[in-house]
Design a protein that fits this description.
Shape: globular
Largest sheet: 7 strands, mixed
Radius of gyration: 14 Å
Number of strands: 11
Number of helices: 0
């Protein structure tokens, strides 16, 4: 079994920054890709960013592109999400996801069906 533990969430004012991290542990044979999704109040879960184990490719949602960076630390089995210039609409529970079985890398990394393990989520609240 694989466990994903997110950290780094919290409350921040609009315009501020946060760095979310997700550490994977357990019976990990290989990580093919990791991603971040979020679910805001009254909204469906949506894609935020994704990265392959090698760091290429990476994908970003249009809503966060240019102010968000996803990185992977393979030695620590950790993926991080640096978010800057936060907006009130970024308020959501952020979920980390992991793909551990072989599957073609590409734009399907933007979809939740691509991942076979999920974290419990970490709350991000942005106040204006």
């Amino acid at each position: 079994q694989v466990q994903l533990v997110e950290s780094g969430g919290g409350s921040v004012q609009a315009g501020g920054s946060l760095r979310l991290s997700c550490a994977a542990s357990g019976n990990i044979f290989r990580i093919y890709a990791m991603g971040w999704f979020r679910q805001g109040p009254g909204k469906e879960r949506e894609f935020v960013a994704a990265i392959s184990r090698s760091g290429d490719p990476t994908y970003y949602a249009d809503s966060v592109k240019g102010r968000t960076t996803i990185t992977m630390d393979n030695a620590k089995n950790t993926v991080s999400l640096e978010m800057n210039r936060l907006k009130s609409e970024d308020t959501a529970t952020y979920y980390c996801a992991l793909r551990s079985a072989e599957l073609t890398l590409g734009t399907q990394m933007k979809y939740d069906y691509y991942y076979n393990y999920w974290g419990q989520g970490t709350q991000v609240t942005v106040s204006s």
